[in-house]
Amino acid sequence: MQIRPEEITQILKTQLKDFDKKLDISETGSVISVGDGVAKIYGLEKAMAGELVDFGSGVFGMILNLETDAVGVAILGDESAIK
Known about the structure:
Elements: H1 5-17, E1 30-35, E2 38-42, E3 52-54, E4 60-66, E5 71-76
Antiparallel strand pairs: 1-2, 2-5, 3-4, 4-5
């Protein structure tokens, strides 16, 4: 059996054409405190260090600190918009 590049290319094109990206928001947390560019958030049990957090006000943050009951998030923007 010989591998034909044309056949593989056609299969890949078909699969990529039908690929549908979906956004699944599975966790929502509560901001406990904000100060000095860091937000403490409760309720993100499945969070991992390095993940991005959307505060819903056009401001994002990066999870840096995982604690047992909360996560510490470095705020990447204006912290005054976070409630």
